[in-house]
Amino acid sequence: MKTEDYSILIIDDDPYILDLLTTVFEKEGFQHIFKASTGEEAKFQTTKNNPDILLLDVMLPDTDGFTLCSQLRSYTSVPVLFLTAKSTDLDKLQGFSIGGDDYITKPFNPLEVVARVKAQLKRSNQLESNQLTKAVYDYGFFKIDSNKGKLTVKGRQVECPLLELKLLLYFCEHPNQVLSKHQIYRDVWGEYYGGDNTVMVHVHRLREKLEENPSNPLLIKTVRGLGYIFELDTTTKESS
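Now predict its structure.
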């Protein structure tokens, strides 16, 4: 897809930020830009316009961005980038844990925001275009179909955001191998530095979807000091 084909929803109660980001994105070729200043308006815009990506302020007049993100995740899996003045590691981990895909602290460089949005859209487009893996991994109790971008656990479809889906596909493609956090971040996120906490949070979210006891995982295990290993009987895998 071309830049002008994507749609963006910017959610912030500061008119200056809404206007600033709108202007910058328009200069970068984006033509479908929607704005919301409250949580209720954001829900309406999301269901009405089905944007390809959300820029979400954490502090809103009628709710907080973390709560709103959890609510939006019930009916959309598009990338969510938090915009906030809260910059502690705890705040960032909370944002990732409830479905955020990136975290941008205020004050920010608008061009950096554009760059991060483009990176997220590129990753999203790769999955939708089946450029990652054209396969179905069926292990009986869970099934992941990369062609349709769907995860089914015990016969029930489970909402799975893009990066979680990419991470699970990556594990399915590398069963019974010890994978370092750096390696995972490089291959799944497409970047070479940082990301240990990001990987940890996304692994935790996958465990909550797949494991009977996420605190004592049997599938995605931690190898202390090395990374993670996806332990599964690969003879049951069906790939097409």
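Residues 38 and 62 are 6 Å apart (CA to CA).
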